[in-house]
Amino acid sequence: MKSALLLVVLLALAGCADRLSINTDYLSQGQSSRVQYIVLHYTSTDLAHSLALLTGPDVSSHYLIGDQPAPIIYRLVDEERRSWHAGESEWQGRTWLNASSIGVEIVHPGYRTLADGSREWQPYSPAQINLLITLLEDLVKRHQLPPDSVIGHSDVAPQRKVDPGPLFPWQRLAEAGLIRWPDEAAVLQARARHAQQLPDAAWFQVQLGRVGYRVPMHGEWDDATRNVLAAFQMKYRPQRHDGLPDAESAALLEVLNASLQ
Ligand SMILES: [Zn+2]
User: Fold this and answer.
1) How confident is the model at residue 3 (pLDDT cuts 50, 70, 90)?
2) Would residue 105 show up in a list of annotated catalytic residues for this protein?
3) Distance 152 CA to ligand 1 centre (A)
4) Which tens digits make up the pLDDT trace of 129-149?
5) Which of 65, 191, 222, 237 would disulfide-bridge 251, Cβ 3.0–4.6 Å?
6) Residue 39 Cα to ligand 1 middle (Å)
7) Of 79, 88, 105, 137, which is the active-site residue?
């Protein structure tokens, strides 16, 4: 059905080509890439299943990083076109990010569920991360993206997604200049202050919102707020990402947001 429709459209366009003549002698300086973000994911399955899933009719990504010893990057969707990777999503007030982002999937299992129901998170291969960073540097440069344009699925959909997970090495991306990272000495100082008196829910919500998250602003601790804080912790303090407020999370938020100014 879809290919029949495509054929009709192509025939119609071919028919128009004779009648519609467009002059391209002039080019505007006032333009930029449609791409504003790069959203990172893991596939939760092996390479064969990932390729089958991401080339099917339902979900897709622009890039897929394989898990071979020398990983291969697959481009499944042209960068000029939309891939279907983020679903309902929001970052910095912008919604439905498939329209404005490049999706990068990494072949990776995520976690294994143990007998007691807990999650055993799986590490990423250094070869995959090295290749990913090279790809991200190229994308950021070509689309002229500002720092912090590289985000996780868990950032843009914290109520329903946890990929790329707590073992994803965000700090490596910071060292490559792709994202900001809170200054360690400043965090220690702020942490001591917040340990005296932990800020309230309203403060955490405002700070999380300033980072870019969609978060409730009603001043109460609820599951939605905890899920957002857990997503932030997974990224900047992965050792504990239970979504419970503490002095270190407060310090990380404060220092990160201060660096925005
Ligand atoms: Zn995802």
Assistant:
1) low
2) yes
3) 8
4) 999 999 999 999 999 999 889
5) 191
6) 8
7) 105
